[in-house]
Design brief:
By secondary structure, the protein is of the alpha+beta class. The protein is built from five helices and eight strands.
Length: 143
Amino acid sequence: MLIGEYYHTLDNKGRVIVPSRFREKLGESFLVTRGLDSCLFLYPRQEWESLEGRLRGLPFTRAETRAFLRIFFSGASEVEVDRQGRILVPSLLREHAHLNKEIVFIGVSNRAEIWGKEIWEEYSNRSNLSFEQVAEKLLDFQF
């Protein structure tokens, strides 16, 4: 399980150290793609394959499905962890997530996310205000 919040710095070449706890779960190579809310999603290979299978089951005759799949998969890239524990974040994905110098890794159960520090702090502050309201609505679902 991927959990926690870690602050790191992106170097001039677009490389960043992956938190060691995340490396244990993600592996030496994993997939990164455009995420929602201006972040990047990082998936271990097994999770990626499971997600890909579920997405293949969506009705491709719907325009929304085709659009989502095109954007999601066209932005995907397999990355490898180097000897220093870093990955190179592709420039297309750095642009999507507005990544500058300071970034944040967060764990979200079966995936990790990369956020620009400012965007994450804004999102987190905004979400904390409604956390209780969201929790109440989610409690209506059975776990």
